[in-house]
Each structure stands twice: as structure tokens, then as C-alpha cells.
Amino acid sequence: MTAEYVITGAGFVMPCGDGIEAARASWAAQTPCFAELPPPFAPGRGAVCAPSTTGIIPPIQNRRLDRPSRFAWIAAHQAFQSANLEVTEHNSPRIGIAIGTMSGGDEATEGFRRPYLEKGPSAASPLLFPNCVAVAISGHLSIAFKLRGPATTQFAREASFFAALDQAMRWLGSGMAEAMLVVGTDGLFPLLPELLRKSRLSTRGACPRIGSRQGMLPGEGAQAFIVERSDRAHERHAPILGYIRGLANCAPATPSSYDRSHALAEAAAAITPAIPDAWIGGASGHRILDDIEAPLHPWNHRWPSPRHPKTLWGEFCGSGGQLMAAALVDPAQRILITIPQSFGGQYAAVVEKP
């Protein structure tokens, strides 16, 4: 990256609560947010969000949103506030939006299809249909916050947020946008816990343990960040929460865990010439992710031991956005983030505090 990119605003909807202070307290306590899932979810354990929309989302629109869109709207509202960035009809900078999601559209799709299958076409609700595609999330936010810059929705499984961040920085570097709203968002839906349980991917104990192969913690939520070039952020005297010192991804030679581990190590080495003060890991109890990330510690024995946000807040909590959230609330100054992905390229990032 030739330009310097900074995070000037952040907003979180998490199983531990809303806002950066809730995330900071949860991260310091290292207390998992698991609980028995309430109806209408299938029986099982998970990390569920229950944010308040009062004063943020108009009631008539709130009723039409699915969970990922609702979470993303609240997190984006917090991010714009913390960045001191206001968009009005008379002040409309070119702000783009980049969404990373793993399950966006799935809740609406299940809600649309179940009545159709049980009672026939007349039972399918046309109000649910627009949310069946994940790009609806960026549409909702663009209208709500008057965003007129470029937009993208990235599906890169567990690295979806960082794929969105990568594209956002490319647009900032080319001048296509003055600022980018980058959001990772996901929501649980009734069928998902059942699918995870039957495929033995969700934890079969109280909470996930890295390397146990006992499964991950299903979670949900949204993490939103305002990302800008540092020169523009300094011009408008914006608060700087963190500098993005590096973002890299590396494609493995084969789909094997061994080659994925090497790809993740190469991505991390490319942006980490110095020993980081802290390491945020992306493993979650999911056997594939654990097998990719676990070999990195012996290879880089001088690094600190990794800490794993997904064991606290869940695997589907923003498709990787919770890793950036943990980096911002961690007290360390220079933080390495590794993002193992169960399919495709492996990501790593470095964030430094002011």
C-alpha cells in the first residue's frame, strides 16, 4: 500500500452489548457470551445480539429489515458518530460502502421459502423477498446515510470483512471515495444452529476451545468502521482510532491444511517485519480454521500467544469483523491479525494505535 489508511470511527453490535466500551469490557474480562438460543432458533448454544433500535432506525423501516441489515445500520450509526462525520443534503462527501458477510440474505430466504414449501406460492411474503439477496444490506445503508460513493458486497467466508476492507482501501487510494464505511455483519437464522449441530461444526461443550475439534460458537452481530486516507483525516481533524499498517492475502498452492497454513504464514510475514505487541487469531474451534492457524505459533515462536475473539463472540459475528474490533479494544499498540479462511486465500493485517 502506498497511501496510509486510518480508522476514524467504529461501531459495534455484539453479543456482549453495543458500542466500543461494551466490547472493551468483554475483551478485558475474556468471558464467553454463549447462552441457550431462544425461539425461533433451533435448540442449541449461541451468542445472540439484542440491540435497541430506538432513535436510530425508523419503526416502519425496522420492521422490514432482516437481522444483518438491522445490526449493520446500528453499527454504522455509531461509526459515523465516533468519526465526527456527518452527511447531509448540503454536505455530501463521496463516501462509499463495503460490506462483508457470510450469511447475509439467509434469514430472509428461509422466512420466504418455508411458508412457500408448507402452504404454496400464495403464502410467500413479498416483503421478505428484497432481503433475500445480501446486497440489500448496502442498499439499506446507502439510503439511510445518504452515501453516494461506490459500493461492494464481499463473500469470502470467514475473511469477508477483510476482503471488503481490501476493496475499500483500493477505492480510497484511487480517489474514487473520500471515505469508506466498511461493515462486517451476520445474523443467526432459525435453520443455521440446526445445520451447524448436525454437521458437528458447532461446539458440543460449554464454549469452544482452540484445537479441541469440538466445534465453534455460532454468533451474530455487526462491526462498522470509517476508513480514510490519513491526509484527509488530518485535514478534517478526525479522531484516529488506529492505523492500518498492512493488509495481505496469499493463495495456497493446494486446498490442504498444510498449504493453507503456509499461505497464512506468508501473508503475515509480508506485513510483520517487526515482532507484534499482540496477536489476534481467527481460529474458533472450527477444525479447519484451527488446523490452518495452529502451526503459525511454532514457526514464529517470538510472537506473543494469540488471543481468539471468536471463542467469546462467535464465529458468524461479522465474518471476521470481530477480529478488527478486538484489535481496536486491545490495549497493545501494534497488533497482528491472522484470518484463516476455510476456502480460498488466507488474510493477515496489522493495526497500530496512535
Question: What do you see in this structure?
Answer:
By secondary structure, the protein is of the alpha/beta class. The chain has 2 domains: 5-242, Thiolase/Chalcone synthase (Peroxisomal Thiolase, Chain A, domain 1, 3-Layer(aba) Sandwich); 246-352, Peroxisomal Thiolase, Chain A, domain 1, CATH 3.40.47.10. It has 13 helices and 13 strands. The strands form 2 sheets. Strands 1, 2, 5, 6, 7, 8, 9, 10, 11, 12 and 13 form an 11-stranded mixed β-sheet that branches. A two-stranded antiparallel ribbon has the order 3-4. Strand 1 (5-14) and strand 2 form a beta hairpin. The longest helix has 16 residues, at 67-82. The chain is globular, with a radius of gyration of 19 Å. The model has no long low-confidence stretch (mean pLDDT 92).
